[in-house]
Amino acid sequence: MNIKELVEKSKNKDKEAFSELFDLYYDKIINYVFKRTLNIDYAKDITSNTFLKVLENLHRFEWRNGENSFNSWIYKIATNEVNQYFRKQNKYKLSIDDENFKELGDFGEEVEKIEKRLENDEYLLVLNKAIKQLKPIYQDIMHLRYFEELTYSEISGILNKNETTVRVYSKRALEKLKDILKEDALFINQN
Amino acid sequence: MNNIEELFKKVNKEKILIEGHKAGLKNYLLNSEYFNEREVFDYKPAFAAIFFSLIIISASFLFFNNDNEKEIALENDQRALGVQSEYFNESMKMMSATSDTVIEESSTLYDKLVSKDNTEAYDSVFDEKEVKVLEVFENSIKTKYYFNKDKNILLKTEIINNNK
Fold this sequence. Notes:
The complex is a heterodimer of chains A (about 190) and B (about 160). Chain A is mainly α and about 190 residues long. Chain A has helices at about 5-10, 15-35, 40-55, 70-90, 100-105, 110-115, 120-130, 135-145, 150-160, 165-180, 185-190. Chain A is globular. Chain B is built from four helices and four strands, in the order H-H-H-H-E-E-E-E. The interface of A and B includes residues 27, 124, 146, 149 and 191 of A.
C-alpha cells in the first residue's frame, strides 16, 4: 500500500493501515526531533505528542499538495511541537556546551547504546551549536532541508512560507552557518 | 558551502532507534479511543435528527392546532347562525301563525255571519260613522251586528225579538 492508501484507510480507523503508517514515520520523526533537541526524553515526549496529534487531526487532513501532503503535514506537526518546546525552555539561543554534551550521556543504557551508534556525535553537536545561533525560522529550514532532506516545496508547506522565500532564507542561513563554523576550531580542523 | 553540506551528510548517516518507546507508543495509539469510536454509538447525528424531528412535529402541531381552532370557531359560528336561523324561522312561523289567526279570527266573525243564508248585509251610519251592518235572523229573533268600515271591529250588537 502507498502512503495515500495508508492514510485514507487510517482515516477510516483501519488499525493495520495506521500501524504501517506509524512504522514508516516513527523513525523519521524521532530522529528529526532528537537532532533538534539533543535530548532523548524530550525527543520521546515530542514524538509521542506528534503522533497523538496526528491521530486526533487525521480526519481533517487533506491532500492539498499531492503525494507529499502527508509528509509535510506530519513534519509540520513535529516542527510546531519542537518550537513549542523551545519556547517553553527558551532554548532557541542556548549554545551547546560541555554541559549539554554531558547531558547527552546521562540517560542510562538506552542512551549509551545510541551514543555508541552516533559515531559522528561531534559533528552533530557542532552543527547544532552553530544552527542554534541562527534565527528560529532559519533553524527550521536548516533541519528540514539538510537533515531531513525535504524539498523546498515541502518546507514551504510546513512553514507556511512562499517557496521562493524558503529558498532565499535557506541560502542566507547557509551563509551565516558557514561564518559561524569558520570560528569553530573543530570545523577548521576537519578542513 | 560544500563542507557544510558534507558535514550534514555525515550526521545524517546516523540514526537513533528507541525500540521500547516505539512499541509502547504504537500500542498506546492502536488501543486509543480513535480506533474504538466505531463501536461506540455516535450520539451527535442521532441527537441532531431527534432535535430536527421535534422542530418539525412542533411546527406541524402549531399549524394544525390553529386550523382546528379555526374550524371549531367556524363550526361554532355556523351553529350559532343555525340556531339563530332556526329561531328566526320559528319566530317567523309563530308570527305568521299569529297573523293568520288574527286574520282568521277577524274574517271569521264577519265572514261567518255574512256567509250564512239567514244573514243580510248593508251599509249604514252609526254614531256619524259609516258602518257595515249584518242582520241575522234566527226564528223570531233578529240580531244586528255593527262592524266598522273595514269589517274587522265589532262596534255594537242589537237583538230584536219580533214576537213582542
